[in-house]
């Protein structure tokens, strides 16, 4: 499968695939106009790194990675914001390839760490992230408004 997969930076023309992917990931239909505005803002931000995985020019996976300088790390830290693999392509190493690209990016840019958060309802993701080399080291608390 690895040789069939092409991974590249997300471009504006990937909006529809990313929109569908995030709707599936979140199990809801997001406001397209607001989504489009945020998408364009995020992919044009040089502190963000967005990748798409394709097979025969069809999107099968997506990852978004945001970086910021944090005082408590005394340096640049990256966080995976969204990570999606189409259900027909899970377990085929595509997610690992996307994570490897993120790790390469982090190494080239001297990041202190890579963080990822997963919703508690996605219990299977804990094992997936641990298998990818992440450690479960923090708790994240959230208030929704």
The helix/strand class is: alpha+beta
CATH architecture: 3-Layer(aba) Sandwich
Q: What number of domains?
A: 1
Low-confidence stretches: none
* Order of secondary-structure elements: EHHEEEHEH
Number of helices: 4
Radius of gyration: 15 Å
Overall shape: it is globular
Helix share, percent:
25-40%
How is the biggest beta sheet arranged? 5 strands, mixed
Distance between the termini: 42 Å
Summarize model confidence as the mean pLDDT: 91
Number of strands: 5
Proportion of residues in β-strands: 25-35%
CATH third-tier fold name: Aminopeptidase
What's the CATH first level?
Answer: Alpha Beta
- Can you identify the CATH superfamily? Gcn5-related N-acetyltransferase (GNAT)
Summarize the structure.
This protein is of the alpha+beta class and 145 residues long.
Your description of this structure?
- A hairpin with a 4-residue loop joins strand 3 and strand 4.
- The model has no long low-confidence stretch (mean pLDDT 91).
- The protein is α+β, with helices and mostly antiparallel strands and 145 residues long.
- It has one domain (2-117): 3-Layer(aba) Sandwich (Aminopeptidase), CATH 3.40.630.30.
- The protein is 33% helix and 28% strand.
- The chain contains four helices and five strands, in the order βααβββαβα.
- The chain has a five-stranded mixed beta sheet, with helices on both faces.
């Amino acid at each position: 499968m690895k040789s069939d997969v092409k991974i590249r930076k997300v471009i504006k023309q990937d909006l529809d695939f990313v929109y569908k992917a995030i709707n599936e990931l979140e199990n809801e239909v997001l406001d397209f106009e607001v989504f489009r505005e945020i998408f364009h803002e995020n992919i044009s931000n040089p502190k963000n790194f967005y990748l798409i995985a394709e097979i025969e020019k069809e999107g099968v996976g997506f990852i978004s990675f945001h970086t910021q300088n944090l005082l408590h790390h005394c340096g640049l830290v990256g966080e995976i914001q969204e990570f999606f693999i189409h259900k027909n392509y899970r377990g085929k190493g595509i997610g690992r390839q996307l994570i490897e690209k993120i790790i390469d990016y982090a190494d080239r840019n001297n990041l202190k760490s890579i963080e990822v958060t997963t919703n508690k309802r996605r219990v299977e993701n804990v094992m997936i992230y641990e298998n990818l080399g992440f450690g479960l080291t923090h708790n994240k608390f959230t208030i929704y408004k």
